[in-house]
Amino acid sequence: MIATPDRTPLPRTFFDRPVLDVAPDLLGRILVRATPDGPIALRLTEVEAYDGPNDPGSHAYRGRTPRNDVMFGPPGHVYVYFTYGMWHCMNLVCGPEGTASAVLLRAGEIIEGAELARTRRLSARHDKELAKGPARLATALDVDRALDGTDACAPGDTPLRVLTGTPAPSHQVRNGPRTGVAGDGGDGNAHPWRFWVANDPTVSPYRAHMPRRRRS
Questions:
Q1: pLDDT tens digits, 10-41
Q2: Does residue 85 come out as left (phi exceeding 0), alpha (psi in the -120 to 50 range) or beta?
Q3: Which of 205, 191, 158, 161 lies closest to 58 in space, CA to CA?
Q4: At CA 179, angle to CA 174 and CA 180, rounded to 5?
Q5: What average pLDDT does this structure show over 189-208?
Q6: Are 29 and 111 in contact (CB under 8 A)?
Q7: What CA–CA distance (Å, rounded) separates 48 from 156?
Q8: Given 61, 69, 138, 202, which residue has the most CB atoms within 10 angstroms?
Q9: Which parts of this chain are annotated as the region Disordered (predicted)?
Q10: Of the candidates 79, 96, 76, which has an alpha carbon nearest to the alpha carbon of residue 29?
């Protein structure tokens, strides 16, 4: 018999911990996006940890800016950034306020509202591809910069919330180098901070950083 996932919202104390504790513990949790057309729920299967000033791969490595301000807390808030001039990516802020650590949500399985996600991810060939990658995840859930700073732990109605779900068993959790991170931050020995559920079809493929070519 398969147990029903726990729909209790995660408290702020869950996020008020070191990023390397929070990141793997997010696997199996349920992210709910409330939209005017109805909710979309996603089971998290892949994440990456970013540890602020201690991490050369982090947006906050060189300090606070208007872009990364939300990363500095409080924990439990949503940090959304725009990349490559076309995609949004979603993170959950963790650690004590002022530490600038966050977990990038890389992939998940849509478990509710797939029909809504499909209207935003028309190129997906199968439902397992709807949120397979951080930009696809944000697109499927209709997440953009307007949601930057959203409190996912606020009481009452909120556009984004994280539920307890069914945490991934430790023997199913894998870790390795982060995808597409350049320089020292991409060193898999120093920062094996990508975590995923083993053998889950929604996990995105690993890709090393490839420098962007300048147009001649």
A1: 999 999 999 999 999 999 999 999 999 999 99
A2: left
A3: 191
A4: 170
A5: 93
A6: no
A7: 28
A8: 202
A9: 165-187
A10: 76
What confidence score (pLDDT) does residue 81 get?
Answer: 96
Residue matched to tokens 């709910």: 32
Say what the pTM is.
0.92
Q: Helix, strand, or coil here: 24?
A: helix
For residues 115 and 77, what is the distance between their CA atoms, to the nearest angstrom? 27
Token pair of 63 as six digits? 């300090």
Q: What is the rounded CA–CA span in Å between residue 84 and residue 66? A: 18
Could you write out the DSSP letters of every residue in 112-150? E-HHHHHHH-TT-SSGGGTTBSHHHHHHHTT--GGGTT-
Phi, psi of 129 (to 5 degrees): -95, -5
* Torsions phi, psi for 21 (to 5 deg): -90, -40
Give the model's pLDDT for residue 209: 66
H/E element, 165: strand 160-165
Q: Which two tokens stand for residue 32?
A: 């709910």
Measured CA to CA, the distance from residue 14 to residue 26 in angstroms comes to 10
CB 79 within 8 A of CB 144: no
Asked if residues 92 and 32 have their Cβ atoms less than 8 Å apart, the reply is no
Q: How far apart are CA 175 and CA 172, in angstroms?
A: 10
The contacts of residue 40 (CB under 8 Å, 6+ apart) are: 32, 33, 110, 112, 113, 114, 116, 117, 140, 141, 142
